[in-house]
Amino acid sequence: MFYANAYASRFLSAPDGLQLHMRDYGAPFDPGLPVVCLPGLSRNAADFGPLAAALAAGAAGRRRRVIAIDYRGRGRSEHDRDWRNYSLAVENADIVAMLIASEISEAIFIGTSRGGLHIMALAARMPTLLRGAVLNDIGPAIDSAGLTRIRLYLRHFVAPTTFADSIDYLKKTMSARFAGLSDADFELHARASFERSDGSFGSTFDPDIVKPFEALDLDNPPPPAWALFDGLADIPLLAIRGANSDILSAETLAEMARRHSHCETYIVSGQGHAPLLYDEASIDRIADFVRRVEDREDLPAPTF
Q1: Number of H helices, E strands in the chain
Q2: Residues in a beta bridge with 238
Q3: Which residue among 24, 175, 185, 201 is least packed, with the fewest CB closer than 10 Å?
Q4: What is the rounded CA–CA span in Å between residue 25 and residue 102?
Q5: What pTM did the predictor assign?
Q6: What domains can you pick out in the chain, each with its CATH number?
Q7: CA 125, chain centre distance (Å)
Q8: Do residues 197 and 90 make contact, with C-beta atoms less than 8 angstroms apart?
Q9: What is the pLDDT of residues 124-149, one digit of tens each?
């Protein structure tokens, strides 16, 4: 089903004064519980366009406000002169500041990859903020093979500068892990990935975001953060995995479901890290979860 991708661009100040951008769908007076969308490492708010538009328009039973955030240095947010501020701690403080400025005191959170890490951090910091959570292809244990691939991608990234080249670039770099995508999906993802606010195409993130990554010793990765994940124990959870993911393993997903008494799981076939959430089936699955969390329905036991 098609939903008009209508939103307002809003610019807010980070605690240090940096200008941050978010897409704001729906309206504060809409009856549904707000939804907050947090993107991946080099990604931006445009990734959630179809999903955010659907949820705002009532796909989960009520119209609702949905905000999708651009971290500093991504999308339309201002770049930071100090690359050391491209950290989870600083970004998490930015998210909290944007929520306060937006007068959102509780919400359902959807986090893709790095966005899921932010959700776990928010649960530890402000547990009453989260009414429900969707973790898209991320968990407390991250496969080092995927981290290596992402670091190499960012280190050698050269952005395409036309729409056609953007589509070709994505097909060449993604087709092996995303065999389930249509031409329309690639076109949509090309715009989300490379289209700038002035209509030109190019990089939509600060290349310095790779610098904190360079310090990681991927031969000796940090231990899994199960204690952080356990902070979600009282929060309804939907854990999504791309069937071809090299970040979230099937074993980690199974352990997440075992440890969390209200964790549902959903596998997106034909996609890798991270599922795009453009397809109707994924949008319907998330909308159903949002509706049941909002209505405080009993959620099913783990699916494993």
Answers
A1: 10, 8
A2: 134, 264
A3: 175
A4: 12
A5: 0.95
A6: 8-145+223-294 (3.40.50.1820)
A7: 19
A8: no
A9: 999 999 999 999 999 999 998 898 89
